Amino acid sequence: MVSNNLTYQDTIDKADQLDFPSSVLEFFEGLMGQPYGGFPEPLRTKALRGRRKMDKRPGLYLEPMDFDGIRTKLKEQFGGCSETDVSSYAMYPKVFEEYKKFTQKFGDLSVLPTKYFLNRPQIGEEFNVELERGKVLILKLLAIGPLSEQTGQREVFYEMNGEVRQVTVDDSKAAVENKSRPKADVGDSSQVGAPMSGVVVEVRVKEGTEVSKGHPIAVLSAMKMEMVISAPHSGKIGSLGVKEGDSVDGQDLVCKIVK
Fold first, then answer.
1. Which of 39, 59, 138, 182 is deepest in the core (most CB within 10 A)?
2. Which phi and psi (to 5°) does residue 175 adopt?
3. For the segment 56-96, what is each residue's pLDDT rounded down to a tens digit?
4. Which residue intervals define the domain Lipoyl-binding in the entry (predicted)?
5. Phi, psi of 5, deg, nearest 5
6. Is the pTM of this model over 0.90?
């Protein structure tokens, strides 16, 4: 509402045209239960645009969860799983998969002091990491090499228990590119703009794709939420201004729809 300069009444009047985060739509569906006093109407019906409504306990509407199937899938995908893994995946499948891919690449970093997980130590700073009871690593950062423009990586030199080691790391900050994008004209319905700042995680159309009103164009991830950017009217995708992985600001032009 704030980023798009919408008033309370604007939100109600335009609810069938606005792109709400997935979490908001799931709330309106009833997946999180029933709010005291019921859902606000006509906001709920307009925002859902024909999606299901659950006016009782969500479990009465949903198919039974196949825990055995989840357990088998996780064992095949990650080589093993615990009951905690099964429960975590059942509740947050995308988050869990990202977590497992991260730990497969970097190992269990829960033993690393939070300070150094969030920010690297200073050159020459020494700190300890207790892997398990009686097993402690003494680490000291010695130097950080120059950035390789070909690979986006750096060589990092450090001491581990007095022995000099070297490791190659990806420099994620080096890959950040500040790109100025044209803004969508809010008065031109053929121009579809990003509803807020975020990262494009999926593009569901191509140039020339025929779309109808409400057709999903792209998925935007912003502030740990995902929202679908949909077509405001029927037509054909004339041009795409973004691709997967792009960072966008509010009202950046996503695409144009020609009738």
1. 39
2. -85, -5
3. 888 888 888 899 999 999 999 888 889 999 999 998 888 89
4. 183-258
5. 55, 45
6. no
